[in-house]
Design a protein that fits this description.
Elements: H1 15-22, H2 31-60, H3 71-77, E1 90-94, E2 97-101
Antiparallel strand pairs: 1-2
Length: about 100
């Protein structure tokens, strides 16, 4: 049995089938999840940028030197997106999420 879901043709689905495909599995707020998230938040609160670098290395396997993204880097990565602000805390809108640039 495959781990991949079957392919569905949107135009052939009923409203109920479409809703079922768009729904996300429920995530239970359990003690282990909450404890883990709280530990990460506390680690960043105490350790600041160094903690963010360590977490990036641990979870993403990437060593980063700086957390800053220049306007040129932003434009290269997202050529069709515009910055919403030119202030020191810059942000942009991308797929209904805001990303902050220092």
């Amino acid at each position: 049995m495959s781990d991949f879901p079957s392919i569905s043709t949107w135009s052939e689905l009923s409203e109920e089938e479409r809703s079922a495909l768009l729904s996300r599995p429920a995530v239970e707020a359990n003690a282990e999840l909450m404890t883990g998230a709280a530990a990460i938040v506390e680690r960043v609160r105490v350790g600041g940028d160094d903690a963010l670098r360590e977490l990036t290395r641990e979870y993403d396997g990437v060593d980063i030197e700086t957390l800053r993204v220049s306007e040129d880097e932003f434009t290269a990565a997202f050529p069709n997106k515009k910055l919403l602000s030119r202030r020191p805390w810059q942000y942009f809108l991308c797929s209904s999420a805001c990303y902050w640039l220092l």
